[in-house]
Amino acid sequence: MIEFHRVSKTYRGVRALDDVSFTVPPGTLTGFLGPNGAGKSTALRILAGLARPTSGSATVLGRPYAKLARPGYEVGTLLDAGALHPGRTGREVLTLGALLLGLPRVRVGEVLELVGLSGKEAGQTVGRYSLGMRQRLGIGHALLGRPRALVLDEPANGLDPQGIRWMRELLRGLADSGCAVLLSSHLLHEVEQVADHIVMIGRGRVLAQGSLDELGRGRSLEQTFLDLTADTDRSPA
Ligand SMILES: Nc1ncnc2c1ncn2[C@@H]1O[C@H](COP(=O)(O)OP(=O)(O)OP(=O)(O)O)[C@@H](O)[C@H]1O
């Protein structure tokens, strides 16, 4: 279970998040949508312990990230695939992650297979990877410990159509096997195909949340998004 409870965040007078509350129960996939600057990354960074809320709490399995006993087994995060060290090979990135979690090395091979990186690709440095390959590696890194919650910021960036379909099936399968998945994306059509629940934010506030049916009432997700965000410009109040 992922839970945001009345989370607000102010950066030097800029209100990036304003009283945001929603939950992602186990076994479900929530699409987190909003225009540029709406506050999505800020919310996910708070959840992953990379920023502190000004007020409210964001928890995974009932605890803030910093208080998780075994974070790598409890929540997997991919917030910025560009942050992987360019000088390490894909295999090294995963091996370091596995060592940190006390996992056997065999898990590295399993994860490489899961994310579709070949042995040859795993031996290349990340600096030579395409954005799509970095996303696959980043998702693999997040999945090393078979976490019970997964938080992904724009994971489809850079993936080709096959890659997007692969990711959709992977995330749906993880949710169906009990994982709580929270996914931010600008690809409304993709989210529409994979999510069971949607949270839309604009200018730091939750504009709407619910199932696709509840939100759309016969309209496409894109139309609902455009209608709801029409009067929210890029910057928060
Ligand atoms: N470290 C920071 N310092 C100051 N302001 C920040 C910081 N991080 C984010 N902001 C501001 O908070 C607001 C929300 O930004 P955030 O990156 O969370 O939005 P987003 O929905 O992820 O946008 P995008 O879709 O463009 O990635 C923006 O106005 C942004 O400028």
Automatic annotation (TrEMBL):
Ranges where the ABC transporter domain occurs: 2-228
Keyword Nucleotide-binding assigned: yes
Alphabetized InterPro entries for the sequence: AAA+_ATPase, ABC_transporter-like_ATP-bd, P-loop_NTPase
SUPFAM superfamilies: P-loop containing nucleoside triphosphate hydrolases
Alphabetically ordered keywords of this record: ATP-binding, Nucleotide-binding, Transport
GO molecular function: ATP binding; ATP hydrolysis activity
Entry keyword annotation includes Chaperone: no
One Pfam short name: ABC_tran
UniProt similarity note: Belongs to the ABC transporter superfamily.
Name the UniProt record assigns to this protein: ABC transporter
UniProt organism field: Nonomuraea aridisoli
